[in-house]
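Incident review: delayed structure delivery

Summary: a single-chain prediction request sat in the queue longer than the usual turnaround. Root cause was a stuck worker, restarted by the on-call engineer. No data loss occurred. The affected request and its eventual output are reproduced below so the record is complete for anyone auditing the incident later.

Affected input:
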Amino acid sequence: MKLSRYITFFLALAIVACTTTPYYRHESRALNIIRAGGVYDTDIYDSEDGMKSHGKSFLMQVLNFASLATSFQGSTALGLGGGANFIKNSALILAEPENASGRPSFLAWAPQQLAEDKFKARDHILNVVQTALKNTETDMNITIKHLPQGKKDPIINKIPFEFWDVTAPDLGCHNGSCAVAIYIKNPYEISTPEFLEEAIGKKCYELSATGRKDYSRIIFYQVGERTFPEKDFYQTLSKNLPLWTALYFPPNSIHQKGEPLNYPVVFEKGEMLLFKKPKH
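Output delivered after worker restart:
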């Protein structure tokens, strides 16, 4: 059964690499976006209100995944020397869910004309993320500061994570208790998804959610009580990112006012999109 599922997945990936990903009007924009980003498993789907867009077994997997990070809350006891160092070692940052729909992923389709090759395309994408973070700092009236790379910082395929310290005393972020982790993998050149063709052209450099370990991500994390408005942060960040990007989060991976969102969401162009069946 598992072998059959993997065969189906790689066939789908091969088809996407060669053809434009179609946009299905009978499905939500959120679902179209993650399908274009390589999320083909059926754990996430459209529902009537967008609040029940995942299977029960999948929700339990995500809850267990989230509990891994919670179990590391005692950063001082672990001898990590503060919240920022704790976050660098968090299970949430480094987790490798089996299905792509379980990964909080940064999706992108950078126009081909922006870079000569995938390495320069990665540099460009990282630059726009950094710029978006600084603009988000201004919009939310918080402080976001780049942290120097440490010898023990996680590295995947020779590409290091970036970490940014977030200071917002009124929102519970102080003394290194909040940070943003960024990992941008080398993209692949593909045919542009149908819903972006007119805006960016026929070819693009894609960041997809398909690599179990090697997937791009932008993750905010707070040590202790989750008081920071994470939903507002991601929504503001997406407003400051280019139109050819999107952020996907599975259930219970985002907190707002101390409570987790128990449904999947996509952030695009400053909007939070639900996996909600379109009305025709």
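Verification: Helices lie at 2-18, 29-36, 56-70, 83-88, 91-94, 118-140, 197-200, 230-240.
Action items: add queue-age alerting; document worker restart procedure.
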